[in-house]
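---------- Forwarded message ----------

FYI, see the YciI family protein record below. Original note from H. follows.
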Amino acid sequence: MRFMILVPSTPLIERGTMGTEQQFADMQAYNEEMLKAGVFVDGEGLHPTSKGARAAWQAGEWVVTDGPFAESKELVAGFTIIDVSSREEALEWLRKWPVSCAPEPGYALELRQILRAEDFGDELTPELREREEQMRVEAARNAARG
């Protein structure tokens, strides 16, 4: 079962503050622990929303708005993807998140299970599943070229 840990942004992150040496060391140790356990799949930090954009479908077309998006309380600063045997195991890893990377009381990480092809039912036909798998293979090749 794959899960994504969504890391919320903070005002410091939105101002472009990248973190302290201790935070980087703690996060690296956490990722290494997950890697050694064989559950780490991927993880990345994201630039502040000032470097981003949103696209909204309006009146039959996509309308793009450049960041920053300070009005939203649901900003994402990064993610980690893990592959574990159960939701309980995912929660165990979530509880090991480095305290130094939780900047304030009330800071909350979000855990979401990633959908698998089987979760979509019959609407994802065998032909569509095969095309999806081919796309994943190609995407893995693209990532390897990095």
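H. also flagged this: The mean pLDDT is 93.
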